[in-house]
């Protein structure tokens, strides 16, 4: 299993929330095997929040779930294309009122293009230390529904609860991976610049930094297991609506996570779980609880 490369673009639903859990943030790719091969698969992601922490009347709990079809393809040498199409379910439980509001539907898809500046796994020479460096850009078109009625009590009148952002966003990212025998480290960075949607709402820019430490057990066997630990820093600037800064938005969170990947010749599956070590969201009125994902993919 020498052709394993990690591409963690950390973007679970994360920060930048107007006293409501946030569904719209960067696009998470996860751990992926065989850097020279395409794949197609299905992934499930979930994250939960608590909001209005200092108000027993307004306190809520949000859950964001997403089932995604995703794939990676190689149109030309050293260029890889990734596509993600999510179907999401967002649920808000209003604790004092004992009321639940839920929306579901297609969310915004994401398309990435990466160029391989360095990858010792792609040449014919045996290396004691294997490295890879990818740089790329992405685009997120507005497919998911963003419109809502603020005066409608049956809806959650909050921009961050919607299925999409209503805007076209641009992403930049860089990923570096180094491995010596069974041990390896992955480091990556991502920046997302949201556009303004037709409702004159612009989400704050988002940035992420992450490091992952992994161990590949059973290389050369039918199944390779890869346990790992990760540390991720995420930051979001404040949102802007009609030229006015939305004060109860933006913030930062530091995630600590664990995970396990299992690889075979044709299949890969895995799961990961993370909790915030530190956080400051929406001026302290919003709390991220945890996040979890599982996936199954077929190598082409």
Q: What does the secondary structure layout of this molecule look like, with pairings?
A:
Layout: E1 5-6, E2 31-32, E3 39-51, E4 60-76, E5 79-94, E6 99-106, E7 110-119, E8 129-140, E9 169-180, E10 183-193, E11 201-202, E12 206-215, E13 224-236, E14 240-241, E15 244-245, E16 251-263, E17 267-281, E18 286-299
Antiparallel strand pairs: 1-2, 3-4, 3-18, 4-5, 5-6, 5-7, 7-8, 8-9, 9-10, 10-12, 11-14, 12-13, 13-16, 14-15, 16-17, 17-18
Main β-sheet description: 12 strands, antiparallel, barrel
Total of helices = 0
Give the N-terminus to C-terminus distance in angstroms. 15 Å
Instruction: Indicate the proportion of strand residues.
Output: over 45%
The overall strand count is 18
What radius of gyration results from the CA coordinates? 19 Å
Structural class: mainly beta
SSE topology string: EEEEEEEEEEEEEEEEEE
Name the strands of the widest sheet in spatial order.
Answer: 3-4-5-7-8-9-10-12-13-16-17-18
The helicity comes to under 10%
- Estimate the mean pLDDT confidence: 85
Globular, elongated, flat, extended or rod-shaped: what is the shape? Answer: globular
Low-confidence stretches: 1-18
Primary descriptors:
single chain; 300 residues; mainly beta; 12-stranded antiparallel β-barrel; 3-stranded antiparallel β-sheet; 18 strands; 0% helix
Description:
This protein has strands at 5-6, 31-32, 39-51, 60-76, 79-94, 99-106, 110-119, 129-140, 169-180, 183-193, 201-202, 206-215, 224-236, 240-241, 244-245, 251-263, 267-281, 286-299. By secondary structure, it is mostly beta strands. A hairpin with an 8-residue loop joins strand 3 and strand 4 (60-76). Residues 1-18 have low confidence and may be disordered. Keywords: Signal. It comes from Aquirufa novilacunae.
């Amino acid at each position: 299993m020498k052709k394993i490369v990690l591409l963690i673009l950390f973007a679970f639903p994360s920060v930048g929330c107007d006293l409501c859990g946030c569904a719209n943030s960067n696009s998470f790719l996860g751990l992926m095997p065989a850097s020279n091969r395409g794949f197609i698969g299905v992934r499930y992601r979930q994250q939960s929040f608590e909001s209005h922490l200092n108000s027993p009347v307004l306190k809520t709990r949000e859950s964001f779930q997403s089932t995604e079809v995703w794939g990676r393809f190689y149109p030309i040498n050293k260029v890889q294309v990734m596509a993600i199409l999510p179907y999401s379910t967002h649920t808000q439980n209003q604790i004092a009122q004992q009321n639940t509001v839920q929306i579901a539907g297609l969310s915004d898809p994401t398309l990435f293009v990466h160029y391989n500046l360095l990858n010792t796994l792609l040449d014919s020479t045996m290396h004691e230390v294997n490295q890879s460096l990818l740089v790329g850009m992405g685009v997120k078109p507005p497919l998911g529904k963003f419109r809502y009625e603020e005066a409608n009590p049956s809806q959650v009148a909050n921009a961050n609860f919607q299925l999409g952002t209503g805007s076209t966003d641009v992403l930049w990212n860089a990923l570096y991976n180094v491995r010596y025998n069974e041990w390896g480290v992955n480091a990556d960075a991502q920046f997302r610049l949201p556009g303004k949607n037709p409702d004159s709402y612009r989400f704050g820019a988002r940035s992420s930094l992450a490091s992952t430490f992994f161990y590949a057990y059973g290389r050369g066997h039918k199944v390779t297991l890869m346990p790992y630990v990760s540390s991720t820093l995420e930051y979001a600037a404040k949102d802007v609506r009609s030229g006015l800064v939305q004060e109860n938005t933006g913030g930062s969170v530091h995630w600590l996570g664990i995970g396990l990947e299992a690889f075979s010749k044709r299949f890969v599956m895995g799961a990961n779980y993370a909790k915030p070590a530190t956080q400051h969201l929406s001026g302290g009125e919003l709390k991220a609880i945890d996040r979890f994902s599982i996936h199954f993919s077929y190598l082409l």
